[in-house]
Amino acid sequence: MLRVFQRTSRLSRAPRHPCIQSAASPTAQFLPVDLQSPLPVWGSAQFKVFCQNLHKETDGHRPSPAAAPERRPFSRLSGEDLDYFRTILPGRTITDPDLVESSNVDWLKSVRGSSEVVLRPQTTEEVSQILRYCNKGNLAVNPQGGNTGLVGGSVPVYDEIILSTSLMNNILSFDNISGVLTCQAGCVLENLSQFLEEQDHIMPLDLGAKGSCQIGGNVATNAGGLRLLRYGSLHGTVLGLEVVLAGGQVLDCLATLRKDNTGYDLKQLFIGSEGTLGVITAVSILCPRKPKSVNVVFLGCETFEQLLRAFQLCRGMLGEILSAFEFLDSECMRLLKTHLKLTNPISDCPFYILIETSGSDPSHDEQKLHNFLEEAMTSLLVSDGTVATEESKIKALWSMRERVTEALTHDGFNYKYDISLPVEQIYHLVTDMRQHLGNRAKSVVGYGHVGDGNIHLNVTSAARDPALLAAIEPFVYEWTARHHGSISAEHGLGLKKRNYIHYSKSSQAVALMGHIKTMLDPKGILNPYKTLPDHLR
Amino acid sequence: MLRVFQRTSRLSRAPRHPCIQSAASPTAQFLPVDLQSPLPVWGSAQFKVFCQNLHKETDGHRPSPAAAPERRPFSRLSGEDLDYFRTILPGRTITDPDLVESSNVDWLKSVRGSSEVVLRPQTTEEVSQILRYCNKGNLAVNPQGGNTGLVGGSVPVYDEIILSTSLMNNILSFDNISGVLTCQAGCVLENLSQFLEEQDHIMPLDLGAKGSCQIGGNVATNAGGLRLLRYGSLHGTVLGLEVVLAGGQVLDCLATLRKDNTGYDLKQLFIGSEGTLGVITAVSILCPRKPKSVNVVFLGCETFEQLLRAFQLCRGMLGEILSAFEFLDSECMRLLKTHLKLTNPISDCPFYILIETSGSDPSHDEQKLHNFLEEAMTSLLVSDGTVATEESKIKALWSMRERVTEALTHDGFNYKYDISLPVEQIYHLVTDMRQHLGNRAKSVVGYGHVGDGNIHLNVTSAARDPALLAAIEPFVYEWTARHHGSISAEHGLGLKKRNYIHYSKSSQAVALMGHIKTMLDPKGILNPYKTLPDHLR
């Protein structure tokens, strides 16, 4: 039943989708929190009311909870400030409006700031000098890596000074015995991968944005990506961090040890904190050996139930060589065909699975895969499939999964949700959403990382459609909360989702996050308006 | 060259080593930290002086830095307090001195507290009630799991109330598709392993103390153990925690999701905080599938350099099935023979390696192992070896590594160090220590987890010997700091090592830990005198 692979076109970068959104709204004030007092938290009734109010059009003019709050009373950039920056960063204090513009707008072109300066430090000491100065002068700072984030966390909201790590791109060391890489935060993920390839190793994470994203940003956003199923999250693979705190203090936790139980594991605080607690300047990370053999299969399933059973079978039979278990639905396939002219490499099915194996012995891996496929077909879990072992064919099969995002941008205006759920539930969200929206949406599609319980739900419409948005939200968030899921599995909260945090975190937890923010950044200068909900400010 | 396996005796629990140590010394006062001010930290000069002073006999009476500081001004337990506890925990408020005694003394019998009561809550709500009451009344609390810690962290120092999680031993859920287990903190590790075995899964960690240690304690101490090389640290495998904070607030971060980027990952703070920031009441953890085949080989090497080359070869050739790479030196083997009458299963060598593989296909695993052994022997990296595939033989080979601790207790008084280092350096510590001590020590041995860069250095003497201790410390800590290692790889700091933290953590980092402690436990009632150095109190 397995057929010869039909070549699809190669991976290419998705074009930017233009949909600039202006941002202004009246909200919260900056109030310091008294950390000595007991945690001030909301009762569950208050919390419910908050969530309901987020979406209520009380006066007909209520802005979206994703819109930016009012500018906080930070200082405005002065000529004197620029003179100082030019002294410490000669030639690397960028004020040319054309150059600054690309750092003001996010990759999706969905949010835009109005910063007037981009600072490009090369050393930790320079980052420290910048933050010491900004903290003293009450100047807000937007730390920026590759600017590939999807939730408006990587660009300024108003006139925050952009602190770019792009020139901090040195590899500091690599230990071939332990596989520990240490590098500056601005190293581009793909460059690190290429460097490691020569050392017979790979990075423990891989992303579609690898050509632009930086390791510091990956860590700051706790990027998940395509290898998480196999190598685990950055909370496990990052061994050390160097971080500059809001006041300019350098926190050196740049250990290269797999084990270190001397006190609290402070680096963990900064993994996933989206630049709101400190600026990551260097990273040490545990890198696996490069697998000697990689195989990819693309399979079709009649039901999502069968797909889940195939996943279970796969965990048992492929075991230690399973490195990805991804899926897309038939709606995704329709968009790939319609907008990108890709050819379905197998016969049409309601669901498609992409399985990747990575191992140290090609013949063993092929045999395991063969046994699994035989069992999956005999048990009627999959109805069709194709296998790729050559690199170009592997890339082409992967593109069926990776280019869904690109196909979606051609389908119209995108409403994007990145949800994690107990794995049995993930596709119910799509079917329920489809039923809920009826014919109000153009397309409702689901794809993602089954192995991680992570689905990307996307809804498209011909153009921006507030009525459609009101039908999607809070439905999607309430549905997710009801099923104990996360409203942001890997994209983070940034600007756009900060006010939805209560759907996935208890009010106690959110209050404690506020305390931590105040402890580490008392003036709130680091990446303001991001991650934490407005009522904490 | 591979020979038939010769049976060694089975695993047995090491006997407790009696060496009660009285604890009292004049030191630091409890000073609240102002969290709004910039981090108050020491300059590196101050830090050096502190480390030197730790070991200086200024007045001939200076106690060891490991000795307990003065009792802090917590309230004393009253009859009224006991009445309250008996009301909320009827029949589970233990005051019988014989029963309390075993909770006052640690497993090594190296430290002893003088608590008068052990509380045995069954629910999170009861833990919350206890802490709310204790925090209000300024009563200190010692959270206790299986009491198997090695650094005096698990027992009271003075009269702290012992809060035992032993009766919180319910498994709450297990998801067979994702492999996520959720349970109360008091579940014994071995019981969880047995439960999972029936579900075709295993725990991601395994320890010698598995018969007594509890999962809550494992998480609180960030236990490493024998499977870390394969499945990574608890920072990666723990998906959620429920924690009761000092004031009784329940922090619900008990997610069961592999991915969740909604705000700061608070649970990470409590992993490895040794009960000083909160009491862990429930854990959710990602469990791997049970491997279908396990093999163990025991090999001999002529030099440590060869052993490291064998490790590198092993990473490449065994790849994804490698699950342990442990070692012991010839001195360990001498003690196993002398004190436990074990027989070396291979010919005598300066170094011994134990390699374990775990995989999903027995024939593939055996072939990989065979290829590796052939290459290792052809390249003269190993000089002798034996293989075990049956469970009883596997256990016997493992006992050559696991019973070293027991053999050491028969050799005399033990000075134990748990050090992690860049892997190339780990054995240099042993040879340098041997040279440094000359004939002052009875034995100086090294064994441990090569794969994790973690060595257990042990020095023995006929009896407790302050002069020998003065020769070992600070030498061992200074050596470790000079080589960028950790002075506690997996054992934690507890009471005994709290004042040595500066050897592995920067003063900025230690200061920040103090801030976090003060934020979460303003009165310092949770596991006082542990983890953080006296000068922060």
UniProtKB/TrEMBL annotation, chains A, B:
Keywords for the protein's UniProt record, in alphabetical order: FAD, Flavoprotein, Metal-binding, Mitochondrion, Oxidoreductase, Transit peptide, Zinc
Gene3D superfamilies in the record: 3.30.465.10, 3.30.70.2190, 3.30.70.2740, Uridine Diphospho-n-acetylenolpyruvylglucosamine Reductase, domain 2, Vanillyl-alcohol Oxidase, Chain A, domain 4
Cofactor dependence: FAD
UniProt keyword Membrane, yes or no: no
Reactions listed under catalytic activity: (R)-malate + A = oxaloacetate + AH2
GO CC annotation terms, alphabetical: mitochondrion
Example GO molecular function: (R)-2-hydroxyglutarate dehydrogenase activity
Domain of life of the organism encoding this protein: Eukaryota
Domain FAD-binding PCMH-type stretches: 111-290
Compartment annotation: Mitochondrion
GO biological processes: malate metabolic process
Enzyme Commission number(s) from the entry: 1.1.99.39
Described function: Catalyzes the oxidation of D-2-hydroxyglutarate (D-2-HG) to alpha-ketoglutarate. Also catalyzes the oxidation of other D-2-hydroxyacids, such as D-malate (D-MAL) and D-lactate (D-LAC). Exhibits high activities towards D-2-HG and D-MAL but a very weak activity towards D-LAC.
Family indicated by similarity: Belongs to the FAD-binding oxidoreductase/transferase type 4 family.
Name of this chain's protein: D-2-hydroxyglutarate dehydrogenase, mitochondrial
Taxonomic source organism: Austrofundulus limnaeus
